Structure formats: C-alpha cells, structure tokens
User: Fold these one by one.
Assistant:
Number 1:
Amino acid sequence: MFPVGQLWVWQNPADGRLRIGNKAAALTAEPELTPPPERPPLGAKPNTFEPIATYAHSGGPAIALSASVPERCRAIAALFAPLTVHRPADVVLEYDRRADGVHTLWQGLDVLAHGFIPGRGQPGSAFSLAFQLLQKLLSHRPVMAILHASAVRWHGSTLVLCGPSGSGKTTLAGLLAAAGGEHLGDDHIVLGYPSADVIPVALASTVKEGAFSILLPHFPGLAHAASFTKGPTPFKSVPMTDPSRHARQERLGALVFPKWHAEKRAAVTPLRLRPEEAIIHLADAGFWCDPAHLGAFMSAVDTTPAWHLEHGPNAQPTFDALDTIAASGIRS
C-alpha cells in the first residue's frame, strides 16, 4: 500500500489490479474474491501471419511483428515506423485481432496478452499492443511505467502532457516543438526506474483530422502523409522526435493534463493539482506500471508538480501558461 496525498493505492491480491481509496479502505482491504470480468475466449492460433516490420530501440532487441490480418495493424505500423530496422529479429511476436474485437499476442506458443481494446463498458481484460511492444523493445532497460502522454522539453523543464484521446496533447506538443521546444515523444511516454526519468522513444506523432489545419503550417509533411483510420476517425502520422536522442534521458519536470476546447481563445490559467488528483487524472488517461515498481511510481507522482490546463486554438495564452508551469517544475 502506498500513500499519494490523501489517497492510498494498493493491489488487490486476488487479481493483481490496482485499487485507489482512502487510508481506512486501504488498511482494511481484503482480497476481493468477486469473480473477475469475463475474459473473451482465446480461440485457436491462426495458421498464417504476415510480417509487418521489425523494430528496435537504442541497442535493444529487434522485435519482428507479424499479423494474421495486416490491414488491422495500420495504426501501430504508423506509430512505430520511426523505429523500423532491417536486421534479423531477436524476438518474433504474432498478433491476431478477431472480428469480434478480441486481441491476442503470441510469442511462439506462449500467449503474452489477450483481451479487448480498452473502452467504456467493455468486458474482459484490456489489451494494448503498443504497451506490449514497448515493454519488449525496452526489455534491456529498467522501466517504471508507460504513460498515455506526450513529452516536450520547454524552457529547461520536461513537461509530460497526459490525457485520454481527444485532450489535445499531441497538438499541444507539436505547437510547442514548432515554437522551439524539444519534442521527446508522443502517445506513449516511458519512465525509467528508479528515477522516473523520461526515456525518449521516437514514435511517430499520430494526428487526428481536426488538428491537421493547426499543425500543417509547422509540419508541411502532414500534407503528403498517408492517412489511416481508428474507428471512423482519420489520422495521419508525422515524426516530430529526433531519433538520435534515444540515449539521453530527461528528468521529469511536471505532469500537465491538458483539455482541449475548440472555442477557447482567452487567457489560460493553469490549475495546480494535488497528488491524489494527479493519480486520478493518470488513471483516466491510461497508464501501465511495473508492479515491482509501484511504490517508486507513486512516490514520483507524489513529488512531481501536476497541473490541469484548458487550451484552445490560440497558442500564445497556452504558451504563457506553460511558461509558468515550466518555471515551477523540476529543472535539469
């Protein structure tokens, strides 16, 4: 059990899942023996898989990804494209996504992950192919957590912009990079153990259709980038992170939870969050944490400045607010 401000975080011994509550609930917690959500049936392993690409990061293992239906891997292929290498694979992963929404990842005969893509009201266990790939690619480095976030070094402080899809974190990170910030990563931000430093990983930035016009003046490559869809939404990807920076970690300066408002054009006032509010926002955004490093991760959240920031199309008020956040953040 680990305190975070006025909240406590612990693991349910029955299923290993994280629980969040007050101190009284944590101290009296017993294994919850209620049946877990029904898992989807595993099904037989497909007979054939077609290669997607082989990826590697900063001296780590080369991971070859194959899929039973390659067309269902377009988003992942676009996201990981900057990490593509042309050398023999150390590990082969085989991915299947059935028509009923069930996802399975194999390494040989071993099932590494199996479940549904996270979504509201979905039963069963959550599945993230990106998290699984990143854990394999970084298996040579101690990883504390992976956040659903973007990261930019801004005025001497590393800002990690966390939020669910649609919060504007990629758009904001792109605007900061165009204004002189150093783009460290997008969509999935890796924190190293034990210091919670940001490990830059040059994943491509995936941009929704609504942000094309905002970012196109700064990243002309968007005009010619191939589009793909996630559900009904068109996306394009564009590299913003310099792949040569892989070896240098950056000290976590501040957690920022942006919220996009298309009509917001006035001055922006950031709201400082208590640690317990930050952990709730992180849970809403989505993250993975190595259970062995849960205490260190909670300690990092407890000691890192965290802010809520509403932003809109007018970039200058947002930049001014982020100047304030960077000045108050941990600097390196």
Number 2:
Amino acid sequence: MSAVPRPRRARRRRLARALVSPDSYGSILVLLLITYVASATASEQWQRSLIVVLQVLTVSLALRVAGARRVVLTIAAIALAYAIVVAVIGLFSSESDRTTGLLFIASAALYFLAPLSILRSIVLQQEVDQETVLGAVDAYLFLGMFFAYAYQAVGAFDDPFFQGGVEATVPRSLFFSFTTLTTTGYGNLVPAGQIGQTVAVGEMLLGQLFLVTAVAKVITVWRPARWRAAEGGGGTSPSDGPGTRPSDQPSGSAADDPPPPAAG
C-alpha cells in the first residue's frame, strides 16, 4: 500500500495538470515566474523586447482564463498592439532612454489590466477551490510586476530614480516593488523624486487593499474538503454553514427543553 493517501495524490495530480493547462491560473503562474526570472536577468534592449512578447502572451492568457469583459478586452487589445509595436521598434533601434521608457510603459500597461479581471473573477466566485487560490497568487504577482515596470518607466524619464544615485535596474525595481507591496520596507532603496514616492505610496495602499478583498474572500468562503465531503455524503456535517458548527448551537434550544407535564 502506498504511504501517500489517495486524496492527497489526487490533489497533486490536479495541481500538476493546472500548471500546464491553458485554461487554468496555474499555467499563468508558471509564465509569471518565467517572466520574473527573465526580467531580472535581462541586460540588453533586445532581451527586454522579447520579454514584452512573453508578457503579451501571459496577459492574453490571464484575460481569457479570467473571462474578462468586452470593454477590458478592447482596452487590452490596444495595449497589446502598442506593446508589440514598441517591442519591434526596440529590436531594431539603438538603446536610448526614450525607447527604454516606452518598453517599460508597455510592460506596465499590460500588467495593470490582468489583475483587475482576475480579482473580479475571484470576488464573483461562490466557492473557493484550487483555481481561486492560484488566481489570487497570480493577481498579487501581477501587481508587483506592474509597479516594478512603472518604477522603471519613471526612472527612464526622471533619472536617478533612487536616492544616492543608485541605478534603477530591473532587478532592483523588482526587489523594491515587492518589498513595498508587502510593506516590508528594508529602507536600502528609497525613491528620490516626488513621482516615484507617490507611486510607492499607491503600491503600499493597493497591497493592503488586496489583502482585505481577495484574501478575505478566499478565507470567508473556504471550507475544508472533509466538511464538504461530509455534507455531500448526507452524514453529520462538521459545518452547517460558514462559521457554524453543531457545537456552536445554543444549548437552550427548543429541542433540548423537557416535555410539558401531562394534564390532570
């Protein structure tokens, strides 16, 4: 007999299928991680142009899985077309602050649209499953990537971006973005200009709002699988509703009252 319980093996198989399925948030998570590594290691402009193409693929897949509305898809189509044009220009033009800034603006625009549609999909769901959790993780990573490229775009036109003359490389912007999003704040990188500081404040606020919307939704609706199995089997459920257990029922209910004495 295998040491791994069958339900656990089934969950692992579902997760593995989700990571490669084009209809799952799992595949988007894989693409986001690949894009993060590629962005952190890219140093040439032609490499950044190829990363924009990868971002176009990631965002297009995210909007399709999230079931984005037609208005969002129309805006996304414009942003995707702009990103592709800028990426092609970046491949054949000399590296300059203007071209680099346009590339970063394209990347930031792409990453801004995806989390909005994902969050809408999560909030509208009535039950929390594996896709809900993966979608929440994707939206969080999208927000961090969006602000990282927003910092890069600001730095391309307002250099230096960080105080002390520290160069705003993509790895540094990614590091600063996710430490700001999680309100960790090591303090080793601080925006020098007013625009950068304002954007950083916006990221801190959005990071907290994400926790009280998407994460709160997941925690509120989530129920353990064993509770759902008990309800589906017709047995005594450990939960008669969200946050209600049999032990939580009032001890003085009508069902527990003794019968009235017989007349006469």
Number 3:
Amino acid sequence: MPANRHLPDGGCPGVLAGHLVSSKRRTINLLLLSAWRYLSPLYELNEASQYLRSNFVSPVRLVDKIRLQCAFDMLRCQCKGKVMEEVESEKGGDGVRAVDRALEILQAFGAGDRELTVAELLTRVDLRRPTLYRLLYTLEKGGFLSSNGDPQRFRLGPAIGQLAWAWTSSFDLSDVARPLLSSLWEDTGETVALFIPHGSRRICISELPSPQPLSFKRGIGYSERIVRGASGRALLAWMAPTEVQITRYCEGLEVDISTLMAQLEQARDLGYAVSHDELIKGAVAIAAPFFDHTGNVAGSIGIFGPGVRLDQAHIEQIAAKLRTSASALSSLLGYKAE
C-alpha cells in the first residue's frame, strides 16, 4: 500500500504535519508562510528555505528537524506554484525583461542626479521594491552603480564611465546624424546639411546635395559667420549670447543688431529659423537646432532650396519634419527635454 494513500489533501506529507501540530505550531507555520511570500521574490526556493530555517524556526525550538521538513513540504505544496509563477514573471523568462528593467534604472539618473535613494528611484521606475533591490545589487556588482550611506544612496559607477569613454572615443556626429539627414533628403528632395558652431562661425560637417537640376549646395567644410543665414541663427538663437557677444559676432558686417535680435526671437518662438535671398539670390533656407546631453545647442540641421519650390506652405511642412529630426538627433546625443 502506498505510504501516502490515506493522507488528506492529495497525499502531501506536509499537510499531515499541519494537522498534527499544535495551535502554536500552526502559528509558526503561518509565520513561515508569510515569510515565504515575502522572501520568494528575493531568494531562490532553496535559499529561502535555508534562510527561514536559520532565522525563523530554530530560535523558537517548537518543531524538530522532521516536522520542520514537513512544514516546508507543506509550504512547497501550497505556495510553490504561485511563488514560482511570480518569480518567473519577475525574471521575465529569458532575462530580456530583466535587462530592460536594469537599463530603465540606469536611465533614471539625470544630468543633475549625483546620487539617488531607493525611494527616489521608485518614483522614476515602474518596479516593485524587491525587484529594484535585486537589480540594484546586480548593477552594483558589475560596477554600473556604487552606493554609500544610510539610507543607501546610489550613483553611477565606473563601468558607466568606461562605456562613455568608449562611446566618445569612437563618436562621429556625422555618422550618428546620417540616417536622419538621409530621411529628410528623401522626403524633401532638397539639399540637407549639418552644421556645428565654432566660435563666431558655423561649419558644415555633412551635406547631402539635392538631386534636382535647380538646387543649392555649399559642401563639407563650408564656413560662414554665425549671425548670417538660417543655419547660423538657428544656433545663435539658443546660445543666449550677451549684447557684447552679439556686437562682436557682427563686427565687419552690415548687420542691424536690432533686426538680428528680432530674428533670433522669432526663431525661438517658431523652433526654427528661415532666411530668404540672404547668402544666395533666390535661395531659401530652413534650419533647426539640436542639443547635447548638457542641454547646450550642439548644432543645426539646414535644408536649402530655390524659392520657386519653397513657398510658405512648403516651408512650414519642411520645418515640421526638420524639427522632428532635430529632436531625434538631440535624443541620440543624450538630451532630455524638460
């Protein structure tokens, strides 16, 4: 005859122990059950069992080794399915979900966040506290985070610095921007160029010429004063120059400072700058700025074409696409809009 044939509740030996123990022992079992539910997201099944044995039951001395094993058998029968389901849900099966969540924690740190507490992180990531702790300690072990103090405060670790160095040492703005420039070039059919500021000037570092017979292009390496043209004013408008700097930028040019200030204000209101017949007769230019991880303007994207194709309605359509692309480039450079 099988040993468990007459055991209640499906033959689980731990259930028999549950019927045999006294009310005090039932209380201990309930404590074990509560502790199990609390610890299961934090520990593997065997680790939780070992922890409970050493910290909950042994000091009480109400059950011996055999009954303790039965108690855990009962816990396994009653809880294992639900607990393991929760753990698997938490782990995300193949680990991809855990990686996503770890990256979410790292991305919770902003430019001004030297350190963050667990409470502060919980407001920025959609994670349960046990999950957050487990991922924090994993990231800390890998050097991606470090912690100190009581309560613990976490900061980005040296592994982040190594990745940042590797990224910046191989960084090429033209390569990063190329897919966005290509998309604009295909959508508009006009010349698309990338500019960066250099003192009082702007320099073209990438250009995709228009394939149309009537078009305008300058070429990589082309440099112009920053106060001239839409691509320059798209930079200057967000550089917040002082009046003294504006005056210096305009030295040697026939530029009315009051007109220039009005153009910069208009560019900030629209989110882009426009010029007509300014540097090339018959040409229209539209340009929007992009920003780096510090929030400073890093450059501008400009689109150039003949006025006969770029009427006001067409300018506004291109400007909308241009702003979207500039925003996407800012995101790639680590900029986070407020």
Number 4:
Amino acid sequence: MPTLITTELKPLTQSSNGRQRQTSTKQAIRGGNMRLLYIATGLLLSSTALQAGQWTTGWGQGTSEYIAEVDAKNGLNIACNDINPVRMMATVNGKEYGSFASQSFDLVVDGVRYTTPYDTGSRLGANSFVPMWDHLRRAKTITLETQDGQTLALPTTGATSALPASNSREFGCVMEIAVDDATPPPKYTRHSPS
C-alpha cells in the first residue's frame, strides 16, 4: 500500500532582480517519481490552454476546473471534485480573492447578486450554489465584485458549453453541507449598478 507523502512543490517565478525564486503550493503526492509529476503537470497545462475572453474547462488530479479568463491578471476559477467542497478563486489585477484568500467576492449575474457563492458551509450557501451555477450557464452579463471594491466584467462566451448542467452526470460540485431539495432556493436581490 503506497504511503501518503505531503510535500510542497515550489514553482519558480521571476523576482524583481531577475533571479528565480520559489513560491509554495501544497500538493499531496502518493509516493513516487516527482520528475514524472512535473512532466505530467506540464503536459496538462499545455493541453488546457486558457482562452482569454471565454469560459474553458480542464481536468487534472481528480478535479474539474471551470475558468473564465479575462486576461493573464484577471479571471475566475471554479474547482469541483467529488470529495472536497467547491472552491472558487478570483484574480483581479493580479490580487487573489475567494476560497483560499483573505478577502471575499460576490458575483452579480444579470443583475442578481450571489454573495460569496463559494461559501457552501451553510444551508443558505449550499442551496444558493446550484441556482447560481445554472444562472452562470445562461448569463448575459457576469460581474465579479470584491470585498475591497474592485469590479471585473467576466465573459459569458462559452459558459453554456464549459459549465455542465447541474442536473447532469458531468456536474461534480460538492457542497460543504448537503443541498436540501425540500427547501426552496433563497430569494435573490436585484443589483442596481451604482
């Protein structure tokens, strides 16, 4: 039986003085060849080329990713698998928000605000996620609003094909709390642009 080894992969990034430095990303690896992991990750990233201005999808290490990329410094990533609760990470002007960041964000889809849509740790949050997902698939406008007042218009192109229908077998997003089918989804508030 393989042992579980937890290690930190440290991808190289360019520092301001031109030298390469290491940044840290936690990864769990079942004992084996690190070199093979780096090669596989490189192939996965090169085969899942991001398309600026549209939604794309990718899959790796058991996780489906749904990405709305505006450009290299702006976008939204929704990560779903059948074990961990859904995670959403946004980048606005190079700053990160969401599931793994210290600041939150809301999505405004066709004027309807979804507050911290990735927070599925409450009945309200879990029951709100699926209607938000379905709304994203058919959206005419999507705006991301951060806790510190940044806004970002996200693309709608490709959302229907990238995001599987919530009632399909391909939908694999798990909530922290089970969705209560007997409870109707919450009422949403219309958002008026200021």
